[in-house]
Amino acid sequence: MPTSHETCLTRSEVAEYLSAFEAQYGFTSADFLRHPELRESVPEDDSFMWQAYIDHYGELRRINEEIHRDYLARLSRNDSIEDGDRSYDLAA
Amino acid sequence: MDFLQHKKLVSDNRARLGLPEDCTEALEPEYQFTTRYFWTFRWVFTFRDRKYLQLREHYTKKAGLMHSERSLMAFHYGAIVSEGADGLPTYRPDDPVDIRIDNVHGTGAHLHYGTPQPHHYQESVKDLDLAGLEMITFIKAIFRHRKSSRPIHDVLHFRLRPPEAAAPAPAAAPEAAAAAPEVQRPPET
Questions:
Q1: In the structure, what pLDDT confidence band is assigned to residue B171 with cuts at 50, 70 and 90?
Q2: CA neighbor of A67 nearest in space, from A52, B40, A59
Q3: Sign of CA dihedral A69, A74, A78, A80
């Protein structure tokens, strides 16, 4: 049975990869995206992986924000329920 | 396409591929993924005559869509000049190349053919859709080229327009610049 290798990237791993590229080439990931002339100074295979990790980082941040939004929404729903319970107690 | 569909496609193609006798799978299909919509793929073959074939793909999903698209590709075949710490071939821009098709640097898909320069953009390549080229088509073409000694442009059925007809490199994709603020990373704790 042929095998393949799979790695589920974490946010800290991706951040480390990005930091390594930033240290190696001397400019930030934001500059990598903003300035084509800087991007073109990076060998193509490194440029490929740098862009890929930027995308992965963005996706992980999006998920993180989504989870946080859900958490806050649930928290506010729970607060409403507790307030409702308290009103019931007072009425009694 | 999503991550699971891509894995199945690669697995099916791989099972049917049949490696040439002088070819080794130096890196089995390798995936780095974050979700089923964001993954990065790499696959490397080496040959006894010190050449290698490397396939890289990166898939992303645009907001609102329910499927991923290949946003980066780099298909490479050429001589092994140097190797990284992992023992796999590495590529520098001035290394000799038999053929390379990539869309790295945000300037659109282009072809390197026979020499690292120039970059041949789609406007100067006839009968081959560079951006849409399937990985398996590229692999089979290289295997056929090696077996038959037919030129790669012959097995991939493309022609290059004369240099004077070639268009200048397009400007970098504007979405790259627009996305720049997205990578202002907070310090990791």
A1: low
A2: A59
A3: positive
Question: What value of ipTM does the predicted structure carry?
Answer: 0.84
The shortest C-alpha distance from A10 to chain B (Å) reads 7
Q: B99, B125 in Cβ contact below 8 A?
A: no
Partners of B176 on chain A (C-beta within 8 Å) are 33, 36, 39
A13 and chain B in contact, CB less than 8 A: no
Token pair for B177? 């610049």
- pTM (two decimals): 0.85
* Whole-angstrom distance, CA of residue B57 vs CA of residue B45: 15
Residue type, position B106, single letter:
G
Please answer yes or no on whether B91 and A43 come within 8 Å at the CB atom: yes
Strands (E), B48-181: 51-60, 69-79, 82-83, 89-90, 99-102, 110-113, 120-121, 125-126, 159-160
